[in-house]
Amino acid sequence: MMPIALCVLVASCVFALEALIPVHSPCNALLISPSLVGFSIEQDRWTDWVGTTNRNEFFYNTLTNLKHLTGKAPPIRIGACDHTNFNAAVQFSEALFPPPTSQVPYPQALNVTAGDGYYMTVRHLPPGTEVTVGVNFGQSNITAAVLEAHSLARAFRSASVVRANITLEFVEIGNEADQYALKGLRHPSFSFKAYMREWLRFSREVIKAAQITETSRTKLLSGSFLSSTHSVLGFSPQAVLKSSVFNTEVGPLITAFSQHHYSGSFCSGNGGILQDLMNKIHIRGNLSAFIPDMVAMARHGLDYVIGETNSYACHGAAGISNTAGAALWALDYLLYAGKLGVSRVYFHQGIGYKYNAIQPVHLYRSTINGEPFMPPQPPHIQPMYYAAAIASEAIGPTGATTIIELDIDHPFLAGYAFFERGTLVRAILINSHAFWAGDVEREEVRLQLRSTHDHWLRPKNMVVKRLYMRGVNETTGLRWGGQTYETRSGKIGGRLRTELLPVEEDLVIRQSEAIMLSFRYEGSN
Ligand SMILES: *[C@@H]1O[C@H](CO)[C@@H](O)[C@H](O)[C@H]1NC(C)=O
Ligand SMILES: *[C@@H]1O[C@H](CO)[C@@H](O)[C@H](O)[C@H]1NC(C)=O
Ligand SMILES: *[C@@H]1O[C@H](CO)[C@@H](O)[C@H](O)[C@H]1NC(C)=O
Ligand SMILES: *[C@@H]1O[C@H](CO)[C@@H](O)[C@H](O)[C@H]1NC(C)=O
Ligand SMILES: *[C@@H]1O[C@H](CO)[C@@H](O)[C@H](O)[C@H]1NC(C)=O
Questions:
Q1: Digit-coded pLDDT (tens) for 300-325
Q2: How far is the CA of 64 from the centre of ligand 2 (A)?
Q3: CA 279 to ligand 5 center in whole angstroms
Q4: What are phi and psi of 328, to 5 degrees?
Q5: Ligand 3 centroid vs 223 CA: distance in angstroms?
Q6: Where are the domains of the chain?
Q7: What is the DSSP letter of 483?
Q8: Best residue for ligand 3 mutational test, from 143, 147, 150, 202 (most atoms within 8 Å of Cβ)
Q9: Which CATH code fits 34-395?
Q10: Which fold has domain 5-30+401-521?
Q11: 439, 469, 474, 475, best to mutate for ligand 5 pocket (most atoms within 8 Å of CB)
């Protein structure tokens, strides 16, 4: 706490915090997946994202940027499937939307009808994309689920999709079934037992239709619950593991468990406070609640994914989810999840939602209050996209990067170190103390990195790259190493600006800033 108090009092803070940083990957370091950063797309306007007859170049570019950083295309979930039916007579999809309101300018559809062309549009994704698709379970209509699964199988076996190496990684049966009783999709007494029985009946038909076998690339994703604590009706990851499903022929086809998570819910009104969202302790509190679930899944050899997440449920809170501060939240959230062993984090997105990283089409009204835009706003990224890019850059393209969290005794400063072939290569430091544009004094933290041992292989220099924002409430004008993704094409623009410092030098991390360090060793450049 001391450094902050001092920094407030004196303009240039003389204090340097210390953080130990190992030069070799310690034994508690975990592999961090190059597919960590994913997107979950609302089914109702999926074809707006990806394109129909032609691909959506803007969306493609934003995904390809990330693919260049990690070597893997970001995984995509076409989710929220419980209002989607299938009709072969529909070319792509048809959806029925309720009227927009100022509080919900971009409501989600009441129902969606997909045809074969709908799933075929996955061919417009970047080559190598791994896709998860949900089929309808909410409406208890097994015919709908089976027709969708058949159409999925046709799409992912089509020549253009196979040629682009775009694969159906998971089929998900139903979305947040733990909420069905609350939402009126099932009887109020809909228990976990009843759920599991019905899910098994559906999955037996879906695996046949989607041709899921022990040797197929495609597997089943289990869970997709919103809450693991909301277990009045017995829904929990542990209950899934204990259920008899693993003693059936469906058991071996389930290879991952998906949890949905939001840091809070502000459906009406904008009750969120940005500093609360960004808060280091809150992020750790929100995610570490799932550690017992992750451990249980790992014991059973199942992968743990956060299949749908974002800042605040109900499409985000205005002035919070769409701001630069949310980028700092998302970066810490992603890396903390990765450090806990989560293999994928799918940020939920819908056309015009406040918490999007990407707005892939022209918008004709404000995402904040629904006021008409004249002229319409062209496709653009929102601040959270920078978090996706920075995390991807930190993970890098080796496919074998390991991560640890740095132990930093500071309420707002979080840090992570990254190792390749066992050697320290990068670090990320995030100062989540909120600075509002217009505030006068922007505080800074000074940090001195100390190597855990004076090995001859210690790095000599570090390249410092900074995420700049005018203030956490701003929604544009961010710069990552001087560069911007706020371009017409979604491709990076501007000239790269970095600093080169000896590793012994104090690092200055300003209020509401994130930095990446890339370490340079003797003999390398
Ligand atoms: C969609 O919902 C509307 C209103 O509830 C209903 O009239 C219509 O029949 C539904 N369409 C389909 C295809 O389910
Ligand atoms: C296809 O994509 C997968 C990732 O889904 C990747 O591991 C594999 O190397 C790719 N294969 C080819 C031939 O590019
Ligand atoms: C179930 O889905 C099928 C296939 O789209 C449709 O024909 C049928 O009307 C649906 N049943 C109900 C009860 O909605
Ligand atoms: C989760 O984060 C929110 C802020 O977004 C905070 O209000 C809440 O207390 C956090 N929960 C935990 C368990 O830390
Ligand atoms: C951020 O806050 C400052 C100071 O209150 C204000 O001048 C600025 O317009 C705000 N930015 C946005 C995008 O609301």
A1: 999 999 999 999 988 999 999 999 99
A2: 15
A3: 20
A4: -70, -40
A5: 25
A6: 5-30+401-521, 34-395
A7: B
A8: 143
A9: 3.20.20.80
A10: Immunoglobulin-like (2.60.40)
A11: 474
